[in-house]
Amino acid sequence: MEKNIKLIWDFRGPDASKIAQHHETHLKEYIKSEQLLLNKTGHQDVDNMHSIAFMVVTESEMKPVRDALRPHRGQLYQE
């Protein structure tokens, strides 16, 4: 079974939560336009000045998506 990778974008500052929510919208659009295998995205508030947006991709899709969207970091994803 192929591994899944969670690509993460960090946002900091007083508007971090709103920016992360907005970024997730663009990630969903990208998934649809590129017809990626997985359709998993989200946003999370780490604290009041730090939020993240993320998308989950398969290991085989990771490099092209990483090069196109330039996430800040990534990690293995397990449900």
Automatic annotation (TrEMBL):
It comes from the Bacteria. This is YCII-related domain-containing protein. It comes from Aquimarina algicola.
